[in-house]
UniProtKB/TrEMBL annotation, chains A, B:
This is NUDIX domain-containing protein. The lineage of its organism: Bacteria, Pseudomonadati, Bacteroidota, Chitinophagia, Chitinophagales. Residues 9-141 form the Nudix hydrolase domain. InterPro entries: NUDIX_hydrolase-like_dom_sf, NUDIX_hydrolase_dom, WH-like_DNA-bd_sf, WH_DNA-bd_sf, WHD_NrtR. It comes from the Bacteria.
DNA sequence: TCAAAAGTGTTGTATATACACCCATGA
DNA sequence: TCATGGGTGTATATACAACACTTTTGA
């Protein structure tokens, strides 16, 4: 008997939900699709899984192609596998979501793809099931960031507590008490206070902090209970 | 231009990590693989994604084939996609984990597959990367059950608080204070006390409880903080 | 009557929340 | 000097963990 005979083989793709934070709003990076079907429509950046790579490697490659970045936070969301999701041919797609420091993002690369950042409440209609992928990624982000110190991935190396708070408030679309917020953040003992201040956004200036990378990695799995009643915002 | 030309198509499979609880231990359902390669070795139950179904539907079909059950808890873990994970031909596999009531499981069906239940610390060497899939599933179970009322899926319709505690203790391989445990469980207000008692395992007998299904569904997303310092056990 | 498991209550500790004022600085 | 945002402290309520005794009943 010949194994695996007479079985359908599928195209397997990865699609990346790339999120960034511009200091005020969470944003999603989209491209104008360069080929048929659905050419010139807004789309997630994606690519096909190649013979020599696994799906995570594909996602890293695709991410680097568009942003120039590697070593960033990247996590598999889930498979999107409805038989007719692409009208041209069946494609199973693995959605990955990535959190990047928007300042590191290299603009020139994405010119090739006519890429643009969109605020989350202004996302256009995307091809296929890409809007579902985005929704799913936002949910996952909120879920995970409520429990793990994930959002630091969206900030530059040096950041202030007020910047961090704005980020959390953007993700959960709510506001936090700044006294309780900073106490909670600092009690994690993940942050190292710097000598210098950020002076753009206020006269007094806010101290910069850096992540203590060692503690960040060892404590990442610890549950934070960071967002009170987080499920209300999922 | 012909879209999607010259791209590799892959076999796409689903593999199911099926977990049950026999009243004392967590157990994993394995089969003896019936075809080459690796014929007669222990394996997860799996199957190929068919042209007319998405991957979740495949997993449901595969699960029903082996256990006779449908409507049980089933969740996608992640893709396993290393190019050489199957020596015969490249197969991308989506791992799903399932929680079933072991009493509902229909033994005769799985005779066809020479299926057996294994305690978690006695799992044999499995084909391909199936041992990794199992490890990954256990981690996910511990993670999720620490936050959501998930383990009820492993119990029969009527169960006692002591039975529930044994289950939690099996999953986390630790012991809990029974006074704090029952108070915490009952404070969820998910359980409805029954009039009758379970008298097999003690002279006094323990009251049966049933899940309040309405509250179960609406509160599933609420975070429990059920396991103190859960990350220590992940 | 006694062994074995079920069931229940209290108290101290830690954690989270709510809330108001002073500080530093550039305009 | 004043308006703006940064930074801090305290009192209260809530949640959690530790802990011991009584109840039931079959053998």
């Amino acid at each position: 008997m010949v194994p695996y005979k007479d079985l359908e083989r599928l195209l397997v793709a990865v699609d990346c939900i790339i999120l960034g934070f511009d200091g005020a709003k969470l944003k999603l990076l989209l491209i104008k699709r360069g080929f048929e079907p659905e050419k010139n429509k807004w789309s997630l950046m994606g690519g096909f899984v190649q013979p020599n790579e696994n799906s995570l490697e594909s996602a890293k490659r695709v991410l680097k192609q568009l942003t120039g970045l590697s070593g960033v936070y990247l996590e598999e969301l889930r498979a999107f596998s409805n038989p007719d999701r692409d009208p041209e041919e069946r494609i199973l797609s693995l959605a990955y979501f990535a959190l990047i420091d928007i300042n590191q993002y290299q603009k020139q690369l994405s010119n090739d793809y006519q890429a643009e950042w969109f605020e989350l409440d202004q996302i256009p209609t995307l091809i296929f099931d890409h809007n579902d992928m985005v929704k799913s990624a936002i949910r996952r982000l909120r879920y995970k960031a409520a429990l793990h110190p994930l959002l630091f991935e969206l900030l530059p190396e040096k950041f202030t507590i007020p910047q961090l708070q704005i980020l959390y408030e953007a993700v959960y679309d709510t506001i936090f008490d700044k006294r309780n917020f900073s106490r909670k953040v600092l009690s994690l003992e993940l942050l190292v206070k710097q000598k210098d201040k950020e002076k753009e956004s206020s006269k007094k200036g806010a101290y910069f902090y850096k992540l203590d990378l060692t503690k960040y990695e060892t404590n990442f799995q610890a549950f934070l209970n960071f967002i009170p009643n987080a499920h209300l915002y999922l």
